[in-house]
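Homework-ish question, so no full write-ups if that breaks the rules, but can someone show me the predicted structure for this set?
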Amino acid sequence: MSNKLVRSIVYWLLLSPLVIVILFPFAVMFVTAVRPRDELFTFPPSWFFSEFRWDNFVDMWTKVNFGGALLNSLYVSVAATVLALVFSIPAAYALSRYRFRGKGLYRNFLLMTQMMSPIVLVLGLFRLMVAFGLVNNLNSLVITYAAFNMAFTIWMLQSYFNTIPRELEEAAWMDGATHLRSLIRIFLPLAVPAIAVTAIFIFINSWNEFVLALTMLRNNNDFTLPVQIFSQVAGRYQIEWHHVMAATVLATVPVAIVFSWLQRYLIRGMALGAVK
Amino acid sequence: MASVTITGVEKRFGAVQIIRGVDIDISDGEFVVLVGPSGCGKSTLLRMIAGLESISSGSISIGDRVINTVPPRDRDIAMVFQNYALYPHMSVYENIAFSQKLRNRPQGEIDRKVNEAADILNLRAFLARSPRQLSGGQRQRVAMGRALVRDAKLFLYDEPLSNLDAKLRVSMRTEIKALHQRLQTTSVYVTHDQIEAMTMADRIVVMNAGQVEQVGTPLELYDRPGNLFVADFIGSPSMNFIPGRIARENGAVLLVGQDGTRIAVPAETKASDGQAVVLGIRPEHLSLRDGTDGVAAVVEVVEPTGPNIQVFVQLAGTRVCSILAERHPFVPGQPIRLGASLTQMHLFDEKSGKRI
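A: Not a homework solution, just the prediction itself:
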């Protein structure tokens, strides 16, 4: 065996406990989701079951109101991503390209906001949304998610924007382009990797967020997926674990799709941002 | 095509002054090279002409029009950047055609112009490629092509050859000069390489610390440098400088070196007796002398370059370089005698550095 192969095997063996930790919950989720209901609580617990009960997913869809919650989650995550990008891109561009008073202070301020846990702000945010009349409204989540992610996205975008040579825009101006034209035709196409990476981050953060959603939403029809799944577990006499797990499995699917679609940008974008 | 007039231009970044009152007149069709050490403000001045940097005071005009506040896109200037600044997400064709598309020119005309430029620059075969598939020299030519299709009044070059290897630099130098002779577009070219400046320019502007040291044709600057800085900067290897004091004896004017060596200098010099001066002699103007002629020197290092040998000697207490066409078999420590014609000597005031 070649040296390289031996080394690969050793590394894989060393990493395998980590892989188990990551995959174990998924395995439990999946076997519970496809099990017949009366085999849920066998003792001793077993990985095996008599048949694949795919009907669990169909039953769950209507019983849990999965479709509605899925649409709510999609709306909130996509809208928060778009909103955050709409504000972050110009902010990051300004930080990257212009000199202005208080620039260092502003950057530090952005960094400091990341040191606060959203949980400590929940009460204040709730009262703010009451004042705006946005409680029980999905848009309250869109605004807060966008706001919470913006500091990070501005920071991330700025470090990437710094790697795009200023001369490219200058060349476009000399060629006769306006500032706006050079932004659209030259700058933004080159910034796509960074924009994709930040979009992934905002989308996943928004998709998985639980505490704020639980606080702001009161109406069953407005629940996002994490809250909806939680509501199947909390305060019930009988918990339909096979439905809960089927819902959880399905809830991870959109994130997996977004991630695999944009991951080539993720690697490129993170590497580029890191080096400079 | 147009003339360019730069009058009393200054540039400040906060308290730091980068350009200190620069006046340059560039006539229509002229190829002017701004040359100087890094940090002398030459690139900043070029960017001010382009409109990429604001002007703190003074004015820049193209033709009769003052362009101080005109945005870059309306100045009708084409620019070639040091790193080429090719749009990486566009093909070579799209890069060259970009300016024409912005002006909504008809497709047929764009095709014709891009092909014309590609023919001039030998880029026909590369039009469909993306910039990262090109070599340094090809990228450089695409950057030139982008400027070429513009039919601009003025071409600006910001150290366009400094990223190329030595051989390519020499051939691109010739290509750019040939292109200028063909198009006769007024051009301003920035470089820190004095050989590039000498070979390409109609006129050279030597800059130092944000000021113009001297303006003139390449040979004017070489033959009659106005001060020590220009004398030192233009020419490679650079001019030899021998400091000393002026003394007049029996009608002859002598430079008395720091070690007492006496060197005859032009009798018509305006330098006064006892004045501290610096004598400048170009290495190729020093020649070997026999007997009691010339000045004594001791060989330190001999460097053959092929066409010549460069001999470094101790002369009048300083190290001096001499370029000799004959292949003398000198050895270190060997005493020789060197001399120069009086007409090829330059005298500078030691304090002000100005030519006497």
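Now go work out the reasoning yourself. Hint: The mean pLDDT of chain A is 87.
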